[in-house]
Amino acid sequence: MTAGKVRIAVVGAAGAFGMKHLDGLRNIAEAEVTVVSGTRPESVQAVAEQYGIPNAVVGLDAVLARDDVDAVILATPTQQHAAQTQAVLAARKHVQVEIPLADSLADAEATLAAAEASGRIAMVGHTRRFNPSHQLIHNRIAAGEFAVQQMDVQTYFFRRSNTNAKGEARSWTDHLLWHHAAHTVDLFAYQAGRIVQANAIQGPIHPELGIAMDMSIQLKAESGAICTLSLSFNNNGPFGSFFRYIGDSETYIARYDDLVNGREEPIDVSDVAVSTNGIELQDREFVAAILEGREPNSSIRQVIDCYRVLGALEEQLS
Fold first, then answer.
1. How far is the C-alpha of 203 from the C-alpha of 216, rounded, in Å?
2. Distance of CA 48 to the CA centre of its chain
3. How far is CA 151 from each of CA 47, 217, 247, 250, 254, rounded to the nearest angstrom?
4. Is-contact 77 172, C-beta < 8 A?
5. Of the four, 106, 249, 254, 286, which is 20 to 30 A from 28 by CA?
């Protein structure tokens, strides 16, 4: 690190979330993106030129060999997350990996062990912890002003092929359980307490994608709060995740960075944090934790219980 700055490489920079991270990082004075990486030279070079980044390389190994990189953000295919996170840590660099940490419990546990042994910051992109809408509710819970009784969550997409959030073809298959459910499983525990009961059922397996296109999950926290999560790749709009918090004193509906009460009256979240962009806030936490030498919110240690719940649910479904 140089003069209070963290030198960062973004891997998977030309993808939808790689670019979201680059958008956030350019608002963070303490972050300096020194290199971007991807699998296609032309695409990653175009991103480097668009964002004014001096170096564009192909692959993770080319990043890890550099001495101008303190930390790596991995916005790569899900199936690569665990192995790549372990590789970054072995190279003695800090890492933030996009959600999910892994697509199996064994890989998640192995990555936690690598993180604990590394002495480096190791964080997972559980963005819901950082969205101002969910942050405001978390702050009210911490202040004793609100307690979750029930969460009702819908995560809906319309998907018939392997495409990313930009509508571009991708080489890997998304997953309702290990990717999309991870957001809500972790958020529910973050807001309501440790999960003590979990159940799941799923619909038919898609003949080409090889995944369930519909899924229903029930959760119960040690506080007694419950959560019902409905997930679908068959929903033809609206798309995204919608969170209804039913509590002891109010009802809230969170839609990413926006928040309303149960009567659809808007709640101002502009003063919750220095930005209203959840991914930027996530990246700010990563950079701050590195500079301050502390554990970040959404560290691998903090989110591992989410993956233990997902592992148990996978056993039920299989």
1. 9
2. 24
3. 39, 12, 9, 12, 11
4. yes
5. 254
For the chain, the C-alpha Rg in angstroms (whole number) is 19
Contact 81, 104 (CB under 8 A): no
**Residue linked to tokens 């991870």:** 182
Per-residue pLDDT of 149-173, as tens digits, reads 999 999 999 877 656 555 565 555 6
Q: CA-CA distance, 313 to 305, in Å (whole number)?
A: 12
- ∠ Cα 178 182 185 (to 5°): 135
- Please report where in the chains the tokens 């963290």 appear, as a residue: 6
| H-only helix segments in the chain | 16-25, 41-51, 60-64, 81-90, 105-118, 132-142, 182-192, 278-292, 300-317
Q: Mind listing the pLDDT tens digit for each residue in 275-316?
A: 999 999 999 999 999 999 999 999 999 999 999 999 999 999
Helix axes 300-317 and 182-192, enclosed angle (nearest 10) = 120
Q: In what order do the strands lie in the sheet with 240-247?
A: 195-202, 214-221, 226-232, 148-156, 240-247, 251-255, 258-261
Task: Return d(Cα 8, Cα 10) in angstroms, integer.
Answer: 7
Dist. CA 250–CA 4, nearest whole Å: 42
For 227, the 3-state DSSP assignment is: strand
Location of structure tokens 């973004």:
10
Q: Which residues contact 150 (CB under 8 A, 6 or more apart)?
A: 225, 226, 227, 228, 245, 246
Q: How far is 101 from 107, CA to CA, in rounded Å?
A: 8
CA distance 311 to 313: 5
Structure tokens at 317: 């479904």
How far is Cα 30 from Cα 179, in angstroms, rounded to an integer?
30
- Token match 């140089």: residue? 2
Query: Residue written as tokens 């991807």?
Result: 38
Residues in the chain: 318
- How many Å apart are CA 318 and CA 312, to the nearest integer? 10
Answer yes or no: are the C-beta atoms of 64 and 57 closer than 8 Å: no
